[in-house]
């Protein structure tokens, strides 16, 4: 009934002049907002005006509105509410009855007004079938829901923006954003927050409505923007489902959460590289590192620091996501760096569990604690060597030494200064970790050196009390004392050739028998003269007693010539018997 049925008779020229004069007086007296004008015999009662009115209906605008229309006696004969669909039309083009064409001008969205239309600006003397009698004055109760013009553009307003914006949205980028969507009158139709997940889409590839494709351009991660999209750049005449009616202007409040391009590679920044970097990591190395993992908006999704454990892995071998595999190569021990991974080099469209959504860009702040290669050997660096060095440590030697042990990041683990006595060990006796045993060999008394021990020659993957698993160890060593040792299984060895007549030399009183006292006196004499050497680190009396028992074969308390045999000869006899 709001569409024009038949043109009403035009007023006489004199009447038209009076109307124009009256309209000019009204415009001088008030604006559309804040007064109730009478427009060409159309009486307007603006009984509900919104506080904010950024725009008023002008001739040529399209409008979407609800209405109830009654006769002057209050009888309703038509209502858009009852039909469940708002009316849509264009003003100033003769497509609405003349009274509404005039009476709707100057309206604001969400404004309510009553427009009283005389017969000559409604259906005139002809009426409208059996519904509207001739010469009827009509009263329209209007509520404006929407307005737009074909000349409208997408309107954007930045609500908040991050301090630092290194990159903004461009066409072909992939974005993840949260949004609240409302109609122009404030009616909500959708929200990503209610769904608990972002809206994810390519930009400029037709995945989004045209207005959103345009309105999101130039946004930074963390920016909040209001985007107003006219219907012809949104869902147009068809609308979308039950929530978005035909010809609806859409208002989006958008928060950009993430941004990348499918062609992106990893980026490395904020590098802090130690001055000393003897080696950089390569594929195949095993690395221990700490990390903080965040999204582009700064929200943390994981951190190794909270677990108080490094993340340990081989790099360049597919044990971690491809972007991290790449970002961990070429680093120095102790280096810090930020590595940003696009989704296709992280967890892709599927994401990972509840913490990492699909298509998320990941940012890792990394601190490399150490790395090694399974083929690494012990590294020895001599820091001080005495001028005189007649003896060097070797397998079976008893040594006393000072040490400080730390991780490669400087974390102190152990020190001999924590104890009252020097540390001692017999080299090759499996008393210390293999790498330390190796690092202590070939040292002079007074020599100082640093020794780097890879975990497979240290405490391995499991670690030890106070030592993390797979840790590379750094030792500072100083050899304080050295006692040359004897081979495994020996208690005494000859430094020089043994006497040809060993028993006669041992039988000091030449009575044909050697008791333990005489045996011990002989052995101690050989050691004192440097002709023989006892096993270091063992009480000499225990060694002599043990050696005597081995030679006193009949256990009568004395050794005779027939009983005396060198261990070398015994070993030869035993081997012969076994063969």
Structure description:
With 579 residues, the chain is α+β, with helices and mostly antiparallel strands. Helices cover 16% and strands 31% of the residues. It has twelve helices and 29 strands. Strands 1, 2, 3, 4, 5, 6 and 7 form a seven-stranded antiparallel sheet that branches. Strands 8, 9, 10, 11, 12 and 13 form a six-stranded antiparallel sheet that branches. Strands 14, 15, 16, 17, 18 and 19 form a six-stranded antiparallel sheet that branches. α10 packs across α11 (540-551). It is rod-shaped, with a radius of gyration of 48 Å. The model is unreliable at 1-34 (pLDDT under 50).
Instruction: Assess the beta-strand content as a share of residues.
Output: 25-35%
Q: How does the major sheet shape up?
A: 7 strands, antiparallel
- Principal-axis shape equals rod-shaped
Which value, in Å, is the CA radius of gyration?
A: 48 Å
Number of helices: 12
User: Tally of extended strands?
Assistant: 29
| N-end to C-end Cα span | 122 Å
Structural class: alpha+beta
Low-confidence stretches: 1-34
How would you state the average pLDDT, rounded?
Answer: 90
**Helical residues, percent:** 10-25%
What is the gist of this entry?
16% of the residues lie in helices and 31% in strands. The protein is an alpha+beta fold and 579 residues long.
List keywords for this structure.
579 residues; alpha+beta; seven-stranded antiparallel β-sheet; six-stranded antiparallel β-sheet; disordered N terminus; PPIase_dom_sf; calcium ion binding; peptidyl-prolyl cis-trans isomerase activity
């Amino acid at each position: 009934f709001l569409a024009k049925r038949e043109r009403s008779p035009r007023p006489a020229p004199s009447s038209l002049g009076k109307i124009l004069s009256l309209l000019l007086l009204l415009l001088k007296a008030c604006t559309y907002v804040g007064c109730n004008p009478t427009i060409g015999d159309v009486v307007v009662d603006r009984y509900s005006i919104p506080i904010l009115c950024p725009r008023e209906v002008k001739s040529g605008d399209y409008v979407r509105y609800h209405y109830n229309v009654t006769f002057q006696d209050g009888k309703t004969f038509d209502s858009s509410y009852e039909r469940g669909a708002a009316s849509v039309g264009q003003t100033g083009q003769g497509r609405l009855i003349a009274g509404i064409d005039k009476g709707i001008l100057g309206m604001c969205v969400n404004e309510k007004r009553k427009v009283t239309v005389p017969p000559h600006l409604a259906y005139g003397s002809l009426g409208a079938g059996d519904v509207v009698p001739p010469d009827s004055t009509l009263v329209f109760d209007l509520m404006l829901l929407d307005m737009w013009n074909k000349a409208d553009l997408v309107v954007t307003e930045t609500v908040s923006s991050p301090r630092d914006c290194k990159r903004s949205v461009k066409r072909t980028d992939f974005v993840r954003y949260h949004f609240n969507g409302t109609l122009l009158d404030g009616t909500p139709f959708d929200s990503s927050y209610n769904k608990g997940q972002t809206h994810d889409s390519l930009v400029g590839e037709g995945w989004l409505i045209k207005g959103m494709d345009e309105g999101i351009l130039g946004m930074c991660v963390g920016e909040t923007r209001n985007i107003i999209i006219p219907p012809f750049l949104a869902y147009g005449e068809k609308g979308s489902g039950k929530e978005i009616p035909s010809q609806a202007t859409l208002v989006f409040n958008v928060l950009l959460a993430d941004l990348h391009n499918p062609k992106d590679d990893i980026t490395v920044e904020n590098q802090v590289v130690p001055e000393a970097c003897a080696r950089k990591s390569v594929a195949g190395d095993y690395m221990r590192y700490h990390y903080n993992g965040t999204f582009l908006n700064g929200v943390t999704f994981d951190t190794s620091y909270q677990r108080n454990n490094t993340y340990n892995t081989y790099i360049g071998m597919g044990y971690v996501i491809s972007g991290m595999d790449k970002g961990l190569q070429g680093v120095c021990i102790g280096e810090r760096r930020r590595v940003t991974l696009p989704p296709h080099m992280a967890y892709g469209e599927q994401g990972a569990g509840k913490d990492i959504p699909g298509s998320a860009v990941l940012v890792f702040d990394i601190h490399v604690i150490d790395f090694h290669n399974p083929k690494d050997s012990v590294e020895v660096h001599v820091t001080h060597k005495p001028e005189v060095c007649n003896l060097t440590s070797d397998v079976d030697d008893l040594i006393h030494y000072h040490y400080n042990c730390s991780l490669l990041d400087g974390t102190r683990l152990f020190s001999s200064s924590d104890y009252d006595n020097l540390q001692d060990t017999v080299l090759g006796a499996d008393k210390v970790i293999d790498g330390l045993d190796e690092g202590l060999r070939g040292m002079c008394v007074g020599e100082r050196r640093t020794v780097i021990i890879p975990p497979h020659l240290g405490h391995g993957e499991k670690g030890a009390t106070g030592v993390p698993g797979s840790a590379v160890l750094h030792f500072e060593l100083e050899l304080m004392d050295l006692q040359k040792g004897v081979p495994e299984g020996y208690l005494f060895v000859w430094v020089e050739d043994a006497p040809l007549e060993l028993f006669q030399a041992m039988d000091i009183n030449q009575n044909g028998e050697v008791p333990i006292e005489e045996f011990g006196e002989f052995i101690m004499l050989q050691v004192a003269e440097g002709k023989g050497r006892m096993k270091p680190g063992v009480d000499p009396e225990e060694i002599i007693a043990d050696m005597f028992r081995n030679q006193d074969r009949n256990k009568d308390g004395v050794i005779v010539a027939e009983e005396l045999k060198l261990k070398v000869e015994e070993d030869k006899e035993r081997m012969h018997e076994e063969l």
